[in-house]
Specification:
The chain has two domains: 320 residues, Alkaline Phosphatase, subunit A (3-Layer(aba) Sandwich); 117 residues, Arylsulfatase, C-terminal domain (2-Layer Sandwich), CATH 3.30.1120. It contains 14 helices and twelve strands. The radius of gyration is 22 Å and the shape is globular.
């Protein structure tokens, strides 16, 4: 009996010693936020002093891409380290299968206190009608209360901050913690007066693919205001870590869950839809003020966290740990990242526009987009009924929009394939498909996408069809 007690005591001491050495993990996600819309990404118009300062303390990722330009599938990848197709998470309100493990759950089994807080984490179903809710309850599909120690959701910055403090209060002595903290900002609807000193619509530099109208400018300014509001809340979160003397041993990851709900953004495979901000700080481990232009995928977050915590990376995880990159050590860079666009639940089944399906592959220089349902026209996600979009529709009918911009938004259908040189054409205005100079890269990227879709058991038709008999 004494021997057994001694072993238990030794195990407890070892666990406490390990806990003291292992980093705390804090992942903070904004909702619908594209990479260019943070000051430290060379944007002088937007007010993000806390994020900008945070970037000087860690590493800024200039080429981070999510696996899907929609919340649910993208967050499933961030949590699981696996592509949405791989985990059957392509449908907007699907619950994450119980057998698919997430990084807070894996770290909990390895001695961490784990949780999610703030805006809904989206992986237990969200905004379910009564018919779906009954199914979820009958089949026990809501799994996160079983997976983690602390599961709370709440709308707005104050709820997010309050739950963050509550979580920290409950972390047992001697245990490291892992928390995913979610913000509502800058998700639509965009609030007026989100900050005391709002951005001036007239002073903003609009993206080159935007029609320049007063309503477009006002909407874009409100989007910036909500990012600035998040920035203040993020500063409060960092201050709380400082106050509790936790900053030095905490890996803090800030990331957008997918691109902005703006023109050619959320729900599309263009840069505004899949290219997101990503900044990581880990004092003493990540060089302060560093940045990288290497490709990183949303599915790389989970394995990076697991390796940083000293935990095993399950073989099912398809993402790559970027820990060596963070530490400035030799590593293997990605040649490609992939993203998929699935059905968006808000308009289904009443409109086929929400059933748009697409795939893309991105290299350090090029992007190939495969519009599987190319017959569908461009349809905005989350702002199809907003006044600025309705005005643009009227202006297009009256011939008042520049032809090159009208072609982006109001053609009855789209090309099946789009190929862009992201270095020469970052706004993705010049489709190179069919050009002689791009024939080799077009063939390479179709082949890479073909292989990925086959390995993912993708249900969509492959981009390279079988030979005719």
């Amino acid at each position: 009996m004494r021997s057994f007690v001694a072993v238990l005591a030794l195990s407890a001491l070892s666990a406490n010693a390990l806990g003291a050495d292992r980093p705390n993990i804090l992942v903070v996600l904004t909702d619908d936020h594209s990479a260019p819309h943070v000051g430290c990404y060379a944007n002088p118009d937007i007010k993000t002093p806390n994020l900008d300062r945070f970037a000087t303390q860690g590493m800024r990722f200039d080429r981070a891409y999510v696996t899907c330009p929609q919340c649910v599938p993208s967050r499933s990848s961030i949590m699981s380290g696996r592509a949405p197709l791989d985990t059957r998470m392509t449908r907007f309100s699907a619950p994450l299968p119980r057998e698919v493990k997430v990084f807070p759950e894996l770290l909990r089994a390895d001695g961490y206190y784990s949780g999610v807080a703030g805006r809904t984490y989206h992986l237990d179903g969200s905004r379910l009608p009564n018919e779906s809710r009954v199914v979820f309850e009958r089949h026990n599909l809501r799994t996160f209360p079983d997976r983690l120690d602390f599961v709370k959701v709440g709308a707005g910055s104050q709820a997010m901050i309050s739950q963050f403090k509550e979580f920290l209060d409950q972390v047992p002595d001697g245990k490291p913690f892992v928390l995913q903290l979610c913000s509502n900002d800058p998700h639509r609807p965009l609030d007026r007066n989100a900050i005391a000193n709002p951005h001036d619509p007239k002073a903003l530099t609009l993206p080159s693919h935007y029609p320049d109208t007063q309503l477009v400018r006002e909407d874009f300014a409100r989007y910036y205001d909500e990012i600035a509001r998040f920035d203040t809340a993020f500063g409060t979160v960092l201050d709380e870590l400082d106050r509790r003397k936790l900053s030095e041993n905490t890996l803090v990851i800030f990331m957008g869950d997918n691109g902005c709900s703006q023109l050619r953004g959320k729900g599309t495979l263009y840069e505004f839809g899949v290219h997101v901000p990503l900044i990581m700080r880990w004092p003493g481990k990540i060089k302060a003020g560093s940045n990288t232009s290497e490709l990183v995928s949303g599915e790389d977050i989970a394995p990076t966290i697991l390796e940083a915590a000293g935990s095993e990376i399950p073989k099912e995880i398809t993402g790559r740990s970027q820990l060596k990159l963070l530490r400035g050590e030799p590593h293997q860079a990605r040649d490609y990242v992939f993203s998929e666009r699935g059905a968006h639940g808000s308009s289904l089944p009443n409109s086929s526009s929400g059933f748009d399906i697409g795939r893309c592959v991105i290299t350090p220089k090029y992007k190939l987009i495969y519009n599987v349902l190319w017959q569908l026209p461009y349809t905005p996600v989350d702002f199809a009924g907003d006044s600025f979009w309705r005005e643009l529709q009227r202006m297009n009918e009256e011939g008042k929009i520049k032809p090159e911009l009208a072609a982006l938004y109001f053609k009855p259908n789209r090309p099946m394939f789009e190929l862009f040189d992201l270095e020469a054409d970052p706004a993705e205005m010049n489709n190179l498909i069919g050009s002689k100079e791009a024939a080799a890269i077009q063939k390479e990227l179709k082949g890479a996408l073909q292989e990925w879709m086959i390995l993912q058991r993708d249900f969509a038709p492959l981009p390279v069809p079988p030979r005719n008999r």
